[in-house]
Amino acid sequence: MALLLCNAVAQRHFLSSLHCKNRRSLSIRPAANTKLRFSTSDFSRSSGLRRLCPLKSSSINGFSIANNGHVEQFEGEQREENFELHERLRKFFEFLPSILPGGNWWSFSEDVEVKYLAKPVTLWRALGRMWQLVARDRWVIFAAFSALMVAAVSEISIPHFLTASIFSAQNTQIAVFHRNVRLLVLLCVIAGICSGLRGCFFGIANMILVKRMREALYSALLLQDISFFDNETVGDLTSRLGSDCQQVSRVIGNDLNLILRNAVQGSGALIYLLILSWPLGLCTLIICSTLAAVMLIYGMYQKKAAKLTQEFTASANQVAQETFSLMRTVRIYGTETLELERYNLWLEKLASISLRQSAAYGFWNLSFNTLYHSTQVIAVLVGGTFILGGHITAEKLTKFILYSEWLIYSTWWVGDNLSSLMQSIGASEKVFQLMDLLPSDQFTSKGLKLQRLVGQIEFVNISFYYPSRAAIPVLQHVNLSVHPGQMVAIVGLSGSGKSTLVNLLLRLYEPTNGQILIDGFPLRELDIKWLRERIGYVGQEPKLFRMDISSNIRYGCTRDISQKDVEWAAKQAYAHDFITNLPNGYETLVDDDLLSGGQKQRIAIARAILRDPAILILDEATSALDAESEHNIKGVLHAIRSDLTTKRTVIVIAHRLSTIQAADRIVVMNGGQIIEMGSHSELLHHDGLYARLTRRQADAVA
Ligand SMILES: Nc1ncnc2c1ncn2[C@@H]1O[C@H](COP(=O)(O)OP(=O)(O)OP(=O)(O)O)[C@@H](O)[C@H]1O
Predict the structure, then answer these.
(1) CA 259, 262, 264 angle in degrees (round to 5)?
(2) 119-216+231-277: which CATH topology?
(3) pLDDT tens column, 465-519
(4) Which residue, 29, 233, 317, 544, is the most exposed by fewest CB within 10 angstroms?
(5) Interface pTM (ipTM) of the complex?
(6) If you take atom 26 of ligand 1, which residue's CA is the nearest one?
(7) Which one of 226, 231, 466, 689 would you pick to mutate in the ligand 1 pocket, going by the greatest count of ligand atoms within 8 A of its CB?
């Protein structure tokens, strides 16, 4: 590293001197159309590089030469370079102790913000959790272990019969030789078959583990309160489901499988070595114990590194996901470089972790190689002395060397796979933490199902703040009654809490104070699924799923629906015409980007109408519609309200006040409070905020 650093500095030094020369030649500029002739008097001071540099500012045959200042500049540059070299060397020597084992370069603490870290999971707890997930199919695990045991014992017996065959042939013991070779062939066949079965069964167990883990995680996430999603990012959650689960997937199929195989074989080899010669066996055991200690430290380090890698990968994914989903905005504002930098920030953090992991791997390999070769040297040294003393035979020593190699390699494999296991366990921490989240009590408590929903809504003294912004009250002491069949419009300035009121009615959040009554029953006591099935909702920015239009309109409707019903709803929402003009009509595959805002809103309105809701909520549903469609939708609203068979309560949040003039009641909100309430004419007469907003919009149209 020191050499590299010095090389880099030397290279820079050389390049900058070239640069200086180039600049000197460039400083000679033709002042007129004259020939260039230098006289020696123009160059004084004859020492070193300075000989090449002109000293005085002069004009030679019409060429102006910047000289004296240039030399000073050159000297200055040289001083700067020397200083830089010293600085670099100083920094390097300061840095040197930090990269020694135990130095702070190895510590990850600076790279982590505490909030990213999940609670540590111990190895046994993580394995216990994984066992719970695969326990239903425990036969696969048992089959895998049985195959592993048979394969491991067969494999570990091979060197014994191999050596015995060679030495029996050398001693011309033909019968023993044939028996040993037959056993050798049998062991090879058994080891081959069982290894295959072991790999296959562990692979199946792995697949089961990952599938169940993703299932459990996904269902735990789906059942969280909406406020949970206010704090978590999509990129982060998808990263947990994707790469984290994939990383954990290595645990059974790869890590445990190989650890167990090598542990069995290593133990077999050790027992055999101790039987062969206990002093030699003990020497090997000491070396292996040292290796195991190094391995343990290395494994812990890798676990920590893996945890951080997962966190940073999730953050990088989050940036990429956000950028891709806002690609149009990025393109229009030309922020590609900025986004790349944002992504690069996380890539650099990942690279820094990876660098330390590679360095740690280097140390680990160094220890292994040193210890491995010491076993060989000790075996030859001590074993050779034993042979010379007539204590053991050459056959025994050969077996000893073969088995001690086996033992040390098994220890190495166990170490390598243990560190991989630690990485997987590190990756599993956040996954388990998310899996342990309790589902929202909306899914656990059984609520009341009324015979029918009439549509009486009462907000009684409602106050609310979002859990993610506990200090800012969004609604304060809101009291509002909506009678069945009434159409109530909510208007107000942006951010006044209109959508929040609807969010509480849909029970996406719970009020901080007060309560909401539906048909006289507290909202909390009603079966929320039952209630939501009877509410039609069109949001501010309707989103479509990547499926055909017909399925998008049917989405979430629990009634039996025919294609005719779908088309009826589409006609009511004035969506039928544009749908039939699409290449595949109702079968056209759409997603959120393929339709205009107005078209998406009409599909969302059709979706809401199809549910035949007792309560219909339109949150600025007309904001993206053209004037004609808006007029049509006003007609739909009117039709829905005057449908005598089903009385619907309609709540409309609108910025375009022209759409809600016919509402039974208009509620005006400001700063989370209701400040005015009445019919259109009453509010105009009152001459408050509503009248002001109406005048402003009329002026804007004029
Ligand atoms: N999920 C959320 N977490 C935290 N604060 C929120 C959340 N949603 C909205 N807010 C805040 O609550 C306040 C009221 O928002 P709300 O969406 O209810 O206003 P609005 O009247 O519907 O506005 P607009 O007409 O612009 O849609 C705003 O200050 C907003 O920043």
Answers:
(1) 105
(2) ABC transporter transmembrane region fold (1.20.1560)
(3) 998 887 788 999 999 999 988 889 999 888 888 999 999 999 999 999 999 999 9
(4) 29
(5) 0.97
(6) 494
(7) 466
